């Protein structure tokens, strides 16, 4: 299933044709067992894929095409393009409080996305949403929570995206999605036009941040005073990524097994690895650290939905920048669903034997 929707309109990122969207998804069992972990059997992909990611460079399009995913990246998967979602244009979408940009457009598009994600999860599929900016998590997390109300969220990002409409300095909704999703912040949230459908679905103990290094003062206040667990890049330097992942998974799933929603902003990586993104920040994750995060989440067998956001080839200074960022995005998706740095391997029930009793002498000679 492919869909496209407008970005939230931040001035540093908006270009004609920009979209929020998504791509891919794996079927999971209702018990969240190791069906995905071992061999990726009986898996399906759904997607919401923006034109901006496909064009003009086409790197993600070439690597996220069906044959490539089936046979090269994730052997054993069955991949389906289920068409596009459509969105209603909102004319004269005035800023809220003369600051928050395009609230009706983002709110209504997020509702459409939430419904699509909810249907995909209800049908037994994990939905990977790819954009586009991080405002799309409003729809993806909400839709996921409609079917999995006890889910938890791992938010990998340089930014905490937890400003409220009353604390934001930029007015960009991609810096605010988490505040809409948290129950504990609802007495601080005004009702934005276009958002009446959205209900908070997370508690502060249900989310862990990884990779933070650019946090606004009001966001820092929220993180500290609402006791939200986060690991900044300094924490990762101090503890190491292995310990960070151990603590993250201990907090979220040690007491009970529950679905994991991974929301991964490509700017969590250092800009030397992911230059084609809207708000790069120096000092980010290395390739090995980022892959370790997704490998460990996959190994739980509980990954149920993924966002991959802020991949924008048009913001690369060169085609090489666009290619590098897009290729990194492919690796994030692939490791989420079973590719390891040893490669992705289909399940073998048994090794082939040199010959079989039913094979004639001539057939054996031909085979040899």
UniProtKB/TrEMBL annotation:
Alphabetical keyword list: Arginine metabolism, Hydrolase, Manganese, Metal-binding, Urea cycle
Biological process terms in GO annotation: arginine metabolic process; urea cycle
Co-factor(s): Mn(2+)
Cofactor comment: Binds 2 manganese ions per subunit.
Cellular component terms per the entry's GO annotation: mitochondrion
Pathway note: Nitrogen metabolism; urea cycle; L-ornithine and urea from L-arginine: step 1/1
Region annotation Disordered: where it falls in the sequence: 349-368
SUPFAM superfamilies in the record: Arginase/deacetylase
One function term, GO molecular function aspect: arginase activity
Class in the EC hierarchy, top level: hydrolase
Alphabetical list of InterPro entries matching this protein: Arginase, Ureohydrolase, Ureohydrolase_dom_sf, Ureohydrolase_Mn_BS
Quaternary structure, from the entry: Homotrimer.
Protein name, per record: Arginase
Organism: Pelusios castaneus (West African mud turtle)
Lineage, opening ranks: Eukaryota, Metazoa, Chordata, Craniata, Vertebrata
């Amino acid at each position: 299933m492919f869909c496209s929707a407008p970005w939230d309109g931040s001035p540093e990122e908006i270009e004609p044709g920009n979209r929020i969207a998504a791509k891919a998804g794996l079927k999971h069992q209702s018990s969240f067992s190791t069906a995905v972990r071992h061999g990726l059997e009986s898996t399906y992909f759904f997607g919401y894929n923006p034109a901006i990611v496909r064009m003009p460079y086409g790197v993600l399009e070439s690597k996220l095409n069906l044959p490539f995913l089936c046979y090269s990246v994730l052997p054993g998967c069955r991949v389906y393009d289920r068409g596009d979602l459509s969105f209603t244009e909102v004319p004269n979408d005035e800023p809220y409080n003369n600051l928050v940009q395009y609230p009706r457009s983002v709110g209504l598009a997020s509702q459409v996305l939430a419904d699509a994600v909810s249907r995909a999860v209800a049908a037994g599929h994990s939905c990977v949403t790819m954009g586009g900016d991080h405002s799309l998590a409003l729809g993806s997390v909400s839709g996921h929570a409609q079917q999995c109300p006890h889910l938890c969220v791992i938010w990998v990002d340089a930014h905490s995206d937890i400003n409220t409409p009353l604390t934001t300095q930029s007015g960009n909704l991609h810096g605010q999605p988490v505040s809409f999703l948290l129950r504990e912040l609802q007495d601080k949230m005004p009702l934005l036009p276009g958002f009446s459908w959205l209900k908070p679905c997370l508690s502060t103990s249900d989310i862990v941040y990884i990779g933070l290094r650019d946090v606004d003062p009001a966001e820092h206040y929220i993180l500290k005073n609402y006791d939200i667990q986060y690991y900044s890049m300094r924490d990762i330097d101090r503890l190491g990524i292995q310990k960070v992942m151990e603590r993250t998974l201990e907090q979220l799933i040690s007491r009970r097994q529950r679905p994991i929603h991974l929301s991964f902003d490509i700017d969590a990586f250092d800009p030397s690895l992911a230059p084609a993104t809207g708000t790069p920040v120096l000092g980010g994750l290395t390739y090995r650290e980022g892959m370790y995060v997704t490998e460990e989440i996959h190994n739980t067998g509980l990954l149920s939905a993924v966002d991959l956001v802020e991949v924008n080839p048009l913001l690369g200074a060169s085609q090489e920048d666009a290619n590098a960022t897009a290729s990194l995005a492919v690796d994030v998706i692939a490791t989420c669903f079973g590719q390891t740095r040893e490669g992705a391997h289909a399940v073998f029930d048994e090794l082939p034997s040199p010959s079989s009793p039913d094979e004639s002498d001539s057939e054996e000679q031909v085979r040899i």
